[in-house]
Design goal:
InterPro entries: DUF1310. This is DUF1310 domain-containing protein. Keywords: Membrane, Transmembrane, Transmembrane helix. 48% of the residues lie in helices and 31% in strands. The N and C termini lie far apart (79 Å). The model has no long low-confidence stretch (mean pLDDT 89). It has three helices and four strands, in the order H-H-E-E-E-E-H. By secondary structure, the protein is of the alpha+beta class.
Length: 127
């Protein structure tokens, strides 16, 4: 009786370990795919279009928005679908824009924008 219980427990532990490894690998693959998409040329075009919508003179001498970088720590799946990402503007963490990237009919887009108060204030004054 005791031997059967011991064998059953070993089988259960092995199954749990296998499932844990599978879930970890699936999550790792999903994170790699999200990072690849966010750093793609397609996403870069979306980001630059969205930032130009905020500041018509973005990326020019007259614009508020001179540069942006992706906050890699902000990349995560959105519970409603898509990928959340934050862009840090001009290397200033007080200036940021967050978007939910998703594909609609095969086209990548950035919706659900959240703009920092400071970036909103600066683009309103200038724009």
């Amino acid at each position: 009786m005791r031997k059967r219980w011991f064998i059953a427990m070993r089988v259960v532990v092995m199954i749990v370990a296998i499932l844990g490894v599978k879930f970890y690998m699936d999550e790792k693959k999903m994170n790699e795919e999200m990072i690849k998409l966010v750093y793609s040329d397609e996403a870069k075009q979306v980001f630059e279009k969205r930032l130009t919508n905020l500041d018509a003179k973005a990326f020019t001498k007259e614009g508020i928005i001179q540069s942006y970088e992706i906050d890699e720590g902000s990349i995560k799946p959105n519970p409603m679908g898509g990928i959340e990402v934050r862009l840090i503007i001009n290397n200033n963490s007080d200036l940021y824009a967050s978007y939910t990237m998703s594909r609609n009919n095969g086209v990548l887009g950035g919706g659900g924008a959240i703009i920092s108060k400071e970036l909103a204030r600066q683009t309103e004054v200038k724009g």
